[in-house]
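User: I'm putting together notes for a lab meeting next week and I want to include a structural view of one of the chains we've been expressing. I don't have a solved structure, so I'd like a prediction I can at least talk through. The sequence is below, exactly as it appears in our construct file.
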Amino acid sequence: MPLRLSLLLTLLAAPLAAQSLTDDHLAVTPRTKAEAARIAAVTAPATAFTAPEAFEQNPGGAATVRRRDNADAFSQPSGNIDFARELDFKLGNGLFRKLWVSAPSSTLASDGLGPLYNARSCQRCHLKDGRGHPPEPGENDGTTMFLRVSVPGGPEDGIDEIADYIATLPEPTYGGQMQDHSLPGIPAEYRLGITYEEIPVALSGGETASLRAPTYTAENLGWGPLAPDAMLSPRVAPQMIGLGLIEAIPAADILANADPDDTNGDGVSGRANIVWSLEYDKPMLGRFGLKAGMPTIREQSAAAFAGDIGISSPLHPDGFGDCALAQAACQQAPHGDQDARGFEIADDGLDLVTFYSRNLAVPARVAAEDPQVLRGKQLFYDTGCIACHTPKFVTHRLPEQPEQSFQLIWPYSDFLLHDMGEGLADHRPEARATGREWRTAPLWGIGLTEQVSGHTQLLHDGRARNLLEAILWHGGEAQSQRDAVVDMPPPDRAALLRYLESL
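Assistant: Thanks for the context. Below is the predicted structure for the 503-residue chain, given as structure tokens.
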């Protein structure tokens, strides 16, 4: 019996304790053993590369939308959404784009900004629902990028229910992330400084590439020095497509790919990040965020409202957002939850933003049948890239979420943590993720980055200026795959890149 099928049947027959980390909060119709067998067959890795696989052109299943040739390619609702639910999508879009203002204001539904913030709306970070980027040289506005910050915690700060949890605490003066904007009378926390060193890389066939190694600094500190043991991690806003489909992948299927002890000897040892859910008050599988530090879209959205915009919600009720205890003037500033609403964005608004984020559709692929693309696909498989970038999953049956229910999807990620080497390390843990580990980034839509976002900068901090540079930054568990790309004949390397651009 194939290993993946055996694992799936075992999980169905005797659910792992870890499986309940996420799935028991969903209204799921359980799979039968027959369905599990069908799913194992359809999600098995490809072995022939002379033609596209069935349904490969529709990476989001029935939720896939036509590939547009403009910057709105990532801003379409699920292709299988009905008219009534599309109205909720549009309402959520309105809240996602809303510009928040400071309190007190005559526009009670929009006040509560800050006092510290990175942006005035969700859309200001996720431009066109796409990727952010580092500020250009001489540009002072880092709206689509910021620094997370924390200090090491002690044994008393751990979570007993989560094995291998690495305790961290907010930085005493600056909280959990650095905000470079503030309301009048409140000092902004910092200005992001970046310098780059160019590192030449020799490739086969006489070709060359250059990597830019960044150094980040928190300059113009507005509230005094950082703690000596402060850990800073740069983050750019990720693209938004396909989030609901990712949330609908059974936890058991993600956990089945984990191999923390590398028992199969392929050099890849993916681990699940397990995080504490504020929404459900229990440990859950992390699958969102650059280190898989968030369990659900709703929780991710609420955290972004609090940290990025300074907006309170039922999950983050403080009206002052990310202001630390040491920032008394910030904590005491007026905020917008002092009336009957209770929060600056209440449950209904948070639900609409969650629904919008859940239903941002994945565009259809192009050129899947092109011979060069098919050659690149074979190289992607033969080189071992699919050890982390798992091509396919089938989502849960979800009667209450018809757009995401029982879809064959192609995200090209295992949603697990991997040691990516010292070159990409931020040395800042997050739940079970070490300072060298990152969640495998989904690849769907990656070829549309320039069209949507106006740039081709990739990785967690945008240091890679194109797909080749992103590959060349791979280290740690992906070192052998990176080296294989360096050593490929130039036509093969071009085919691999063409395949990635087709996704």
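A couple of points you could mention at the meeting. The radius of gyration is 22 Å. The CA atoms of residues 103 and 111 lie 5 Å apart.

User: Perfect, that's what I needed.
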